[in-house]
Amino acid sequence: MDNLQILLDYPIFSAQLVIDGILIGAVFALAAYGMALVWGVMNIINVTQGEYVMLGGFVAVMLGEAGVHPLFGVPAAAAVLYVLGWLLYRSVIFRIVDRDLFISLLATFGISIVLQQLMNTAFGGDVRIADSGLGTWFWFDNQVTVSQIKVVAFLLVLVLGTCLVVFLKTSRLGQAIRATAQNARAARVLGIDTDKVYATTFALNAAICGATGALVAMAYTIHPYIGLPYTVRSFMIVIIAGLGNLPGVLAAGLGLGTAENFAGFLLGAEYQIAFVFGLLVVVLLVRSKWLDRKRQYLK
Amino acid sequence: MLQFKRLVAASAVVAALAVPGMALADDVITLGSAISLTGKYSTNGEHTQKGYDLAVDIINGRGGVDVGGKKYKLEIKYYDDESTPARGAELAERLIQQDGVKFLLGPYSSGLTKAIAPVTEKYSVPMVEANGASRSLFTKGYKYLFAVLSTSEQYLASSIALAAEKAGVLGKKPGELTVAMAFENDPFSQDIRAGVMEDAEKFGMRIVIDDKLPKELNDMAPTLTKVKAVKPDILVISGHAKGAATAIRQIAEMRVDVPMLAMTHCDSAKVIKKFGAQSEFTLCASQWAPTLSYSDDYFGSAADYAALFKKTYDYDPPYQAAESSAAVLTFADAFARAGTLDPAKVRDALAATDMQTFYGNIKFDETGKNIAKPMVLYQVQNGQYVVVAPTKWAAAEVVHPRPKWADR
Question: Residues in chain A whose beta carbon is closer than 8 A to a beta carbon of chain B?
Fold first, then answer.
């Protein structure tokens, strides 16, 4: 517990951990929101989430290497991934929309492996980064540092999230998406082209993850096999926050990011990911207790 | 070049058909190798293959190897192991059983070597390998496995020795230094960790951080925050290319000040190209450097090798290529000294190897690992890798301590 002592002696480092946790948590939250969208509307748990993030990162890296500022990679990655998501829906996903959860898990898992391997074959397993050219703010004699690109990423996450909510609440398509999520059959009866809604939702999620990936490539690092942690964390955030609840997703994302950083500091990096999985089990247990109680109440 | 080889191969076939008893084939020593030409190790697999080919070409260019008064040309039979250990073992079996190959060159990576070594051992086929550094390869009592490279536990141990040597600069004794370690949680990086621990213990240094990085992690912020809090004298990091890239980026971003920062895989992470000034003053472990003052009869000096490689393949030789060439030289030397192509005799000759190559000195201990060549440490100085340790072969003085970020 030496590490705890350090935090107690120098509380300033807690501030550092919280800041880093919040900044990375926002990135997790964005990918998680996309997952919640697909899950809520199509009843598909998309485990390709992390691979979309990876692909988005590669778009930003490619742009950076071509001399374009990688910040343009955010819209570019969103556009590229939107098209990819749409194509995937038209080729694979539409076949599994109404099937049970197991089939969709298998299918998206398969897609994620294919994407990983394709990227490995095309670009090699090397680590890549996109350089945003932004610097670092630092306070208290360099003891607290905040990388500017992470702040930019954080703000972009907020902007994108807000745009999404507004889109879903006000636009015709957004309303159609929400109607389909509530009751697909009723939506069809009322003349909504649910197939189109599904395609859009799936593509939209890919675009969101693509934008996330571009931010990850600028703030962290990216390689063909980086996807899994993003999928796992998305899943966890959605479990905590529930579907279709953006403030909840954001709060859960920030909380997870912070908790993870403290776990990494106190227990050592080797337990950081283990902590995430441990937390997932706890959350699932608590959630099921919750639901049990609700059911009893309904009776 | 490829056409030329085809021509040679074709004429060999024609000659073999024409002359009963395959007289020509008798003048060739065939070495076999399963090598990663596709899959995740394909880049380094290619470096390995080029290293082998270059050495074979230069030996054959000199008329081949003299074995018991008769000249033999060398030839290598390759198979692609697709970067999968199971396939590697299968191919080794095929090389030995079906193709009748009596001598093997190693594959790329410790994992593949681990899969192939039991096969060569079973058939008593000598294997000289250049790209399997894992310590566990040399604890199994293999008799037919020889490695020209430094094993993994030596990778960063030299940084500890260097820190001890320079402890006075910080106004401390070696025993007062503190070490922070962050190593990925895989066998290779943990081998390196074991080596660092051993050396730190020898000097009586204290380990203040010992983090094992999960392989999924691309964020080291918690570990680096801890480094800022406990202010160690040395920070040692190893986590393949991803670890190196993540560390360089975040150490600069978070302005982590440590007197000495040492890591592995700087070159495969291309830290100078990607991070520029942020990578400055980082110490990087390497098997070999073109500026070292070793030399041999075939290639000349290390610098000559680098020039020849660049001329042939149009890029600078990574150490994976250099050590692969050295493996072929080692075989050639052993064939000549054995005076016969009997695998058991060649094995004994290999065990008695004591030579200098452009890559470094080669002398095997009883477990088959090369104990005569130390790892080198580069430091990034003005955007260049400069050899700073071991001091005997060094081209420049190490910059120590690293300037603080605030002063840069």
Answer: 3, 6, 10, 13, 16-17, 20, 24, 120, 124-127, 129, 131, 136, 138, 142-143, 145, 147, 216, 220-223, 226, 228-229, 261-265, 268-270, 272-274
* Amino acid residing at A290: W
User: What residue of A is the nearest CA neighbor of B40?
Assistant: A125
CA separation, residue B92 to residues A282, B79, B332, B360 (Å): 48, 9, 21, 28
Tell me if domain B2-150+290-363 and domain B154-286+375-407 are identical in fold. yes
Q: What are phi and psi of A7, to 5 degrees?
A: -65, -40
- What is the CATH superfamily name and number for domain B154-286+375-407? Response regulator (3.40.50.2300)
B219–A220 C-beta distance less than 8 A: yes
Tokens read off for B82: 């697709």
Residue B291: per-residue pLDDT? 84
Instruction: Read off the pLDDT of each residue in B45-51 and give the average, rounded to a whole number.
Output: 93
Q: Do B212 and A265 touch (CB under 8 A)?
A: no
pLDDT at A10 over 80: no
* A142, A221, A263: residue with CB nearest B245: A221
Closest partner residue to A129 among B255, B268, B274, by Cβ?
A: B274
User: Would you say B169 and B403 are in contact if contact means Cβ atoms under 8 Å apart?
Assistant: no
Q: Which of the given ranges, A266-270, B14-18, B190-194, has the highest pLDDT on average?
A: B190-194
Q: State the smallest CA–CA distance between residue B253 and chain A in angstroms.
A: 6
- Give pLDDT tens digits for B206-237: 999 998 888 777 788 889 988 988 899 999 99
What CATH number does domain B2-150+290-363 carry, 3.10.20.580, 3.40.50.2300, 3.30.365.10, 2.40.128.120? 3.40.50.2300
Burial (CB count within 10 angstroms: exposed 0-12, middle 13-18, buried 19+), residue A12: middle
Tokens encoding B197: 């621990």
Closest chain A residue to the Cα of B82, Cα to Cα = A121
For the cut 90, the answer to whether the pLDDT of residue A292 exceeds it is: no
Q: Please report which residue ranges of B180-318 form alpha helices under DSSP H.
A: 187-203, 221-230, 240-253, 271-275, 302-313
ipTM of model: 0.80
Instruction: Give the helix ranges, DSSP H, for B254-405.
Output: 271-275, 302-313, 319-338, 343-351
* Residue B187 DSSP one-character state: H
When pLDDT is cut at 50, 70 and 90, the band that residue B31 belongs to is: very high
Strand runs labelled E in A7-94? none
Task: Domain A2-298: give its CATH code.
Answer: 1.10.3470
Cα–Cα nearest to B77, from B98, B47, B108 = B98
C-alpha–C-alpha distance, residues A183 and A148, integer Å: 43
Q: Which residues of B are less than 8 Å from A278 in CB distance?
A: none
d(CA B16, CA B26): 10
- Contact assignment for A16 to B225 by CB distance below 8 Å: yes
B171: pLDDT strictly greater than 50: yes
Q: What is the pLDDT of residues B290-345, one digit of tens each?
A: 888 889 999 999 999 999 999 999 988 888 899 999 999 999 999 999 999 999 99
Torsion of CA B197, B199, B204, B208, to 10 degrees: -30
